[in-house]
Amino acid sequence: MSKKKISIISPCYNEEAGILECYQTIRKLFDTELKNYDLELIFCDNASTDRTVAILKELAAEDPAVKIIVNSRNFGILNNTYNGVMSASGDAVLLFMPVDMQDPPELLPEFVRKWESGYEIVYGIRAHREENYLLASARKAYYQLLSRITYLDYPPNVGDFQLIDRCVLEAMKQIDDAQPFMRLMTFECGFRSIGVKYTWRARKHGFSRNSLARMLDQGMTGIISFSTAPIRLALFAGLAISAASVTYAFAVLALVLLGVSAAPSGIPTLIVSLFFFAGVQLFFLGVIGEYVLAIFNQVRRKPLIIERERVNFEASLRTSFHPPEKRAG
Question: Using CA atoms, how far apart are residues 227 and 209, in angstroms rounded to an integer?
Fold first, then answer.
């Protein structure tokens, strides 16, 4: 009887300091607690400029379980990870295993046990964070907001650190999304799920390459893709402001009919009102613009990732990009 295979996706970008330790930690798990399972460890490299790819190729030459996807440029962590997940062949897939191991790999055996007991989605809940108070509070506030405004039953503090069954992966493949946001996509598919609380650890090597601008962009992707709250807020706020304006107009008319003269010094109030309503209009135009941009990205049909090469994948799965040959003459 053949063993079940577990695929693990590890996105990386300039992680030469931690690649070897990450591999050794995961390999040790599969040599001990998970020895009854086959391993598929897919490293998705976002065009690293250090020795990350060289180290990965050395590992892949020694261990066929190590597979590598090298991108032609940095396409961002969301698209990079999603491309790796779509390439997984395991019976279960760990969507995200950071090379810096902030999400602890030692939780994987517990995830597997819960998966074997019948849960198709086993997700990690970041109950505690080893990072500065300000950043931890901002992340927590975002997850709470996303949990409240999304139309899905999404628990707060859940990221991409999830083990999913093959049936969930096949369901995800049916979702044609130009801006995939996996942590919510799995819940959109449904199936039985359970959470496991853990502490999100501080980085051991280097610093995060996920800039503030990229994090804000990723956060907006989650809100726009899985919530109608912003556009509904714009609608109801517009109705409320319109109602207030009509009420104010009737109040002014009543004062005029009653012979109550308004004070002539109303110019500052008028200026403040104009700037206020102009700001409101621009804000909600921005909200609508975000949805228009999402539609624009969806209809353009650009590839999520353009690959430079793959290592240790079967020939039928090699979809790497090759630049076109120059025409003679």
Answer: 28
